[in-house]
Each structure stands twice: as structure tokens, then as C-alpha cells.
């Protein structure tokens, strides 16, 4: 029981740390008013990296051994652990899926940033791709995500026009 108690304390510390990561990841992002759509891809790539690292740690043999010992001891701390493990897995899957979908827009980011204001030729394909993401993505098709993406696309268009006007 002494070993079990020590292992439970370790798992409780991990639980607290994981909860903190989840809370921070769910907070509203603060971004500059003129940030473009490539920032959205970078955000999700960073989030994917963080959650994949956390998942790798959770799935490590060291952690699995401790969890197996606590399962054998029928520890009550495992209920919280399993819930957090599931939430981390969902967050990692969401980030991975969002990166995959946002990469389909990546080919538009360069032309959108470097085009003249006559970027209209890129807009129909860009909107079709955004529509495809909205219709098929299990995670990214929320009004929150889509609004953020449209805001960034619009910011990029405005920045491109400003640059064009200042150079001309």
C-alpha cells in the first residue's frame, strides 16, 4: 500500500499538469488584428506537436507500468486518469485533423499574400477548399474555427491591397 500511495501521488501530479495543459489549450487565443491565414496553420501545427508529445509520454512504458500497478491495486485515481487520457487523445486527433485540412489551403496562402489586388482569380478555388473543409472536417467545421479562418483570409487580402497601394 505504501508503494501504491506513492504511485497515486505521482499520477495525481501528472493529472494536475495535464489538466493545466488542457485548460491553457482551451483558452481564447489573442492574435494581432492583421494576422493572415498561415498563422492558423502554424497554430494547429504547434498544438499538434504539443499534444503528440504529451501522448507519447502517456503511452511510454514507464507510465504504462505505473498505471498497470495502480490497476492491479484497484486505485481510484485511475478514473480521472482515463478521462484525461481520453481528452488528450481527442485534442491530439483534432489538431492532427485540422493540420491535414488546413494544409489543403496552404497553396493559396502564398498567392494571396503576394498577388496584386486582382487576386480574384484565387478566391473561387480558395472558397471551394474552405467549403470542402467545412463540409468534411469532423473538428474544424465549427462557426468559431471558420470565423477565425475567414477573418485571417480577409486580413491577408487587406494587407495585400495595402502593400500594393503603398508601393504604387
TrEMBL record:
One Pfam family this sequence matches: DHC_N1
Listed GO CC annotations: axonemal dynein complex
Biological process, per Gene Ontology: microtubule-based movement
GO molecular function: dynein intermediate chain binding; dynein light intermediate chain binding
Record InterPro entries: DHC, Dynein_heavy_tail
Annotated Dynein heavy chain tail domain residues: 5-166
Protein name from the UniProt record: DYH5 protein
Species in which this protein is naturally found: Falcunculus frontatus (Eastern shriketit)
Amino acid at each position: 500500500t505504501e508503494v501504491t500511495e506513492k504511485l497515486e501521488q505521482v499520477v495525481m501530479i501528472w493529472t494536475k499538469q495535464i489538466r493545466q495543459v488542457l485548460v491553457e489549450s482551451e483558452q481564447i487565443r489573442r492574435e494581432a488584428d492583421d494576422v493572415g491565414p498561415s498563422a492558423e496553420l502554424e497554430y494547429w501545427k504547434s498544438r499538434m506537436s504539443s499534444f503528440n508529445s504529451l501522448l507519447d509520454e502517456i503511452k511510454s512504458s514507464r507510465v504504462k507500468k505505473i498505471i498497470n500497478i495502480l490497476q492491479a491495486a484497484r486505485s481510484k485515481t485511475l478514473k480521472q486518469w482515463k478521462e484525461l487520457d481520453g481528452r488528450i487523445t481527442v485534442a491530439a486527433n483534432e489538431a492532427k485533423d485540422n493540420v491535414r485540412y488546413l494544409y489543403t489551403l496552404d497553396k493559396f496562402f502564398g498567392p494571396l499574400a503576394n498577388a496584386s489586388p486582382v487576386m480574384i482569380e484565387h478566391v473561387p478555388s480558395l472558397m471551394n477548399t474552405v467549403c470542402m473543409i467545412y463540409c468534411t472536417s469532423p473538428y474544424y467545421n465549427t462557426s468559431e474555427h471558420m470565423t477565425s479562418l475567414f477573418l485571417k483570409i480577409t486580413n491577408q487580402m487587406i494587407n495585400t491591397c495595402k502593400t500594393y497601394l503603398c508601393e504604387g
